[in-house]
Structures are given as C-alpha cells and as structure tokens.
Design brief:
With 232 residues, the chain is an alpha/beta fold. It has nine helices and five strands; from the N terminus they run αααβαβααβααββα. The protein has a three-stranded parallel sheet with strand order 1-2-3. A two-stranded antiparallel sheet has the order 4-5. Pfam families: PALP.
C-alpha cells in the first residue's frame, strides 16, 4: 500500500534488503555515492517535530483526553507526540503499543540504549524496525507512562474490527444509486478490496440499460460517487 501510494506521487521507490535495517544501510550508501541527503524517517529531529503536530491535533480535538495510545516502531512518532502532549498536558498518559514480533523499543528501554532485536513477519509492517532511533529513544523514554506489546492475533482482530465498522452499508448505498437511475440489476457480486486499500470492496454488477445514452448517464452518476468505475 505504501509503495503504491508513494509511486502515485511520482516517487522512485527502490526495494533493498529483507528488513528496514538493511534498507537503511543501502540508502545511506546510495546517498553517499549519488551525493544525496539521507533523511531518517523515524529519528531525524525535524521528523520528530513534524510528528509532534499529531499530538497538538489530538489536544485540539479532545482537550480532556486522559490517555493517548501511540504505535511504536522506530520511536519517532511516540517521541514527537509525547513531547507535544506532555508539554501542554503533563497529566495525560502516553502509552506505546508495540508488536511482540519486533519489540525493539521495549528492549532499548531495558538496556538504556538502542539495540538490535530479532524480527519476524508482522501485519504491522510499518512497526517492524529492529533498532529504534537514538534521538527518539532519548526523547520519548522519560515521557512514556507504559509500553504494551500486542500479539499478531490481536492486531488481526483489530483490523477486522475496523473493516466491520467502516464497510457496512456501502453495497446497499451503491445499489440504491443504480436503482434510482432506472437500471435493472440482474447480478451483483463483491470481492475483497484492492491490495492498496483494505477498507474498499470491489463490486461487479450485471445490469440492463435502455440504450447507450442510459449507460453514459449511469457511468456519470457512479463517477460522481466513486473513484474507480469501469463500464464494460
């Protein structure tokens, strides 16, 4: 999903290594050879500051918040959010959520320094950082009230819950739009969403229209409501 989205913005994506640590090593060598600047996505000070704006938005939208749960990978997100929230609302609890398949932040806190941990495949691929950032650790550690590690089963159930909450009613809404256009729907089937969006569903509908103009009217109607519409 992330690769596809980056490429849609015109970014050149190079895949190297089987984990983020090896990818980082390649990126640093590549940058040195090409005269490019390497920006650490979870430990550069400016990145941490930028991620802190999420904390500001949370306080803006929920001023009486008691606790904030933050996913932890390299540590940059929780560092930025913790600084913002603890500065303005020190009584608010900051709780880090880490996958047990890559609990590098927990290990770093125990050792008092970033250390490499063994990782295994995880649904939370964005959190699979085997060594946390030094800036992130030093910034976040004093401000975190608790770190919780979660299993893959819990992550999977959480994703399922999100899908159950976000998708209901979508098919009914679609068929209603089509019915209002005067089209007779013979068969409708739905398939899992695309690989880039787990919150979408692909729907195939066989319908009967009056003529080509009616088809064009239906296509225009659907394109007003949905991003990806193909008429065959």
């Amino acid at each position: 999903m992330k690769i596809s989205l980056c490429r849609s913005y015109g970014v050149t994506v190079i895949l190297k290594g089987n984990n983020i640590a090896k990818a980082k090593d390649y990126a640093m060598r590549f940058g040195k050879e090409k005269g490019l600047k390497y920006i650490n996505g979870y430990d550069a000070p400016d990145i941490l500051a930028g991620q802190g704006t999420i904390g500001l938005e949370i306080l803006e939208q929920v001023p009486d918040v008691d606790a904030v749960l933050v996913p932890v990978g390299g540590g940059g997100l929780i560092a930025g959010v913790a600084v913002a929230i603890k500065t303005l609302k020190p009584e608010c609890h900051i709780i880090g959520i880490e996958t047990e398949t890559c609990a590098s932040f927990t290990a770093a806190i125990k050792e008092g320094r970033p250390i490499a941990v063994e990782t295994s495949s995880t649904l939370a691929d964005g959190l699979a950082v085997p060594t946390v950032g030094g800036n992130s650790l030093k910034t976040a550690a004093p401000m975190i009230d608790q770190i919780i590690t979660v299993s893959e089963e819990v992550i999977a159930l959480s994703i399922l819950r999100l899908i159950e909450v976000e998708r209901p009613g979508g098919i009914a809404e679609l068929t209603t739009h089509i019915a209002h256009s005067g089209v007779d729907q013979d068969i409708s089937t739905n398939e899992p969403g695309s690989s880039t969006d787990v919150f979408s569903v692909k729907v195939k509908i066989i319908a009967e229209t009056r003529d080509r103009t009616h088809v064009q009217e239906l296509e225009a109607l659907l394109k007003e409501k949905y991003k990806n519409v193909t008429i065959l």
